[in-house]
Amino acid sequence: MVKVRAFRTMENAIRRMGFNTVAGVDEVGRGCLAGPVVAAAVVLDPGHYVARVCDSKTATALERNRLYDKITRWAISWSVAASECDEIDRINIHQASLRAMQRAVTGLQPCPDFVLVDAFRIPDLRMAQRAVEQGDTRCTAIAAASIVAKVTRDRMMLELHAKDPRYGFDRHKGYATRDHLDAVSRFGYSDVHRRSFRPPSLFDRMD
């Protein structure tokens, strides 16, 4: 996948409008069969540039971990939040993703003046916000949030793998890969699998 470095143009324009702290928000794990959906909110320091911030999907695991360390060390503030599989099954994955993003934003200290969100508007926020299409490739703050969310969720999936290695969460992180579907066919769903989302390929295997 081609790596596209995100830019600070959007955040800088918003600061010129009078907003001091601009947060980027993104989530990971929407399309998984297992594990939580994890959201992150990041307020980058405009005076401390973090080089090579990009959409987490275009970076290697090593690059993501290095960027995570820099982002969390140099950001003005950052926060992560999750919606677990029981909440996802109860209210659906879209609403669970929005709730996780809302929790991530409200966990920021100090509270941001403005929020940039990848693709969606977050309900019930008290500050100004803007939904940015393909924000994780266009906006540095959103790209930074995507990296923090991805690294956090990957580490959570490694912990789940350590508790139950049958499903191979260390390899696919809960996504519907062939070996994950094979494991579900053999062992059934675990407590960390989402009952509300089963791809047709899995139904075919379980018929």
Give me the secondary-structure topology.
Blueprint: H1 9-16, E1 22-28, E2 37-43, H2 61-74, E3 77-83, H3 85-91, H4 93-106, E4 114-118, E5 128-132, H5 135-138, H6 140-163, H7 169-172, H8 178-187, H9 200-206
Parallel strand pairs: 1-4, 4-5
Antiparallel strand pairs: 1-2, 2-3
Notes on the structure:
It is a single chain. This protein has helices spanning 9-16, 61-74, 85-91, 93-106, 135-138, 140-163, 169-172, 178-187, 200-206; strands spanning 22-28, 37-43, 77-83, 114-118, 128-132. The chain has 207 residues and is an alpha/beta fold. The protein has a single domain (9-200), classed as 2-Layer Sandwich (Nucleotidyltransferase, domain 5), CATH 3.30.420.10. The protein has a five-stranded mixed sheet with strand order 3-2-1-4-5, with helices on both faces. The longest helix has 24 residues, at 140-163. The protein is globular, with a radius of gyration of 17 Å. It starts with 8 loop residues before the first helix and ends with a helix.
